Amino acid sequence: xxxxxxxxxxxxxxxxxxxxxxxxxxxxxxxxxxxxxxxxxxxxxxxxxxxxxxxxxxxxxxxxxxxxxxxxxxxxxxxxxxxxxxxxxxxxxxxxxxxxxxxxxxxxxxxxxxxxxxxxxxxxxxxxxxxxxxxxxxxxxxxxxxxxxxxxxxxxxxxxxxxxxx
Length: 166
Prior knowledge:
This protein has 166 residues and is α/β, with parallel strands linked by helices. It has one domain: 3-Layer(aba) Sandwich (Rossmann fold). It has 8 helices and 5 strands, in the order βαααβααβαβαβα. Strands 3-2-1-4-5 form a 5-stranded parallel beta sheet, with helices on both faces. Helix 7 links the parallel strand 4 and strand 5. It is globular and about 35 Å long. The mean pLDDT is 91.
């Protein structure tokens, strides 16, 4: 399928709730909301040298990082950059800044800067955004990046939808 980079939205996509960026409970409680589909998909993608990043508008990246570290083995969790609206990163490239585009570009730059990860050429046509918000999908597709809408009411359809991509 020529995918080497999966960018996954967090709220209402990777997890089965929408925190609104205001999660007040424990990180372990947040980890309990990770959908079983992603508990299997992310390690499997990593085993096949497909890198994964979390791209979110939530500013609560510390909670997200801790939830990821609880839910996944260290060998998987440490490979996942998280880009949220937390002021911890910048994107200085020329790409589109709407939707999740700069989040994805920044995460891809980080992954490509680490030669030990084996990711040298992340491009728009080798990236796949998975997101429940149709607006982010539209912006992504308009920019020439592959994207797929995640239906929170039918999460198990995602794999079938990915297989339909060209």
